[in-house]
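Run log // design_07
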């Protein structure tokens, strides 16, 4: 009985501390969970194709992670893409959008083909113009580097 009472007391104390400390915690809520309701616009699925090459940007290879931003958010299983130095692309880019995007932003890091299946901290942001339609295209040679993460201090 003492163990049960002690367990309940610890649980209660934890809850009190969590509630008291809630002002110091960050709560993340994405409006993208229901952009249709937020904007009053219908959602559509878009499939992206990445092509082209930019050896200065891609180097030995590059992993891209789509960064959610209006008007689109990424489908959970389809936001990571590998681009090789020879222009080979592996992975899908599927987005749900209220309208076709004009630009897309990726978090990226450079890595050779042997390491392409390992995740690591990304370097910064890549900004790419989009050829519009429901199956849009991104020419990697037209992308430009944005800021590196350490520049966001």
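design_07 sequence
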């Amino acid at each position: 009985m003492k163990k049960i009472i002690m367990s309940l007391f610890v649980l209660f104390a934890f809850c009190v501390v969590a509630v008291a400390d809630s002002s110091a915690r960050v709560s993340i809520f994405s409006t993208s969970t229901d952009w249709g309701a937020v904007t009053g616009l219908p959602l559509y699925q878009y499939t992206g194709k990445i092509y082209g090459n930019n050896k200065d940007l891609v180097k030995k290879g590059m992993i891209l992670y789509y960064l959610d931003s209006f008007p689109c958010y990424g489908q959970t299983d389809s936001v990571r893409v590998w681009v090789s130095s020879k222009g080979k692309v592996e992975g899908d880019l599927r987005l749900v959008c209220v309208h076709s995007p004009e630009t897309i932003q990726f978090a990226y890091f450079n890595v050779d083909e042997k390491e392409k299946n390992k995740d690591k901290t990304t370097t910064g942001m890549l900004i790419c113009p989009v050829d519009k339609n429901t199956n849009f295209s991104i020419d990697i040679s037209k992308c430009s580097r944005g800021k590196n993460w350490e520049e966001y201090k």
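The chain has three helices and ten strands.
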